[in-house]
Predict the 3D structure of the following.
Amino acid sequence: MELTLNLNSRLQPMHRHDLEDALQGIFEKEKLGEVTGGGTLQNPKDGEIVSCDIEIHLNDDNQNNINRLVELVNRIGIPKGSALLCMEPEIKIEVGTLEGLAYYSNGTELPNEVYENCNINYVIEQMEAAMEDIGCLYSYWESNEWTALYFYGTSFVEMKQKIEPFITSYPLCQKSRIEQIA
């Protein structure tokens, strides 16, 4: 049975490959099937990542195997709004338990000394420390104007609340924006 795991995740290909490898390891252990491919959809306007697909071959279409696949996918941590799709027979199963937060760092409107003296890696470190057990960085995207950091976790509201004190105090975080993405 051929399935597509459509991920409501903004993952660069290298980060999607990490997820594919984790799934492949689980499939081999469970003898359920294998990962056969994947892809990343980008916004044609600016190149930002929109979503990802992981192609899966399930060894058979037994309902218990499909249910087990859904259970495993939800356990590894994927965003709400994702779906397991099959063309023959036509199946769509909503999956995902995580919420997503996109943080956009302004790359053009701050004073030059801010860019010279501040570091996006420090921003990531501080945000992940603030989110502690509720969320973490999954991927990022860079353009000329913005650097986007994609965090997924148990609650968008809680992740946002945890990072707000840092965002309001660190110069590189000025004129940034936050969006819920899952």
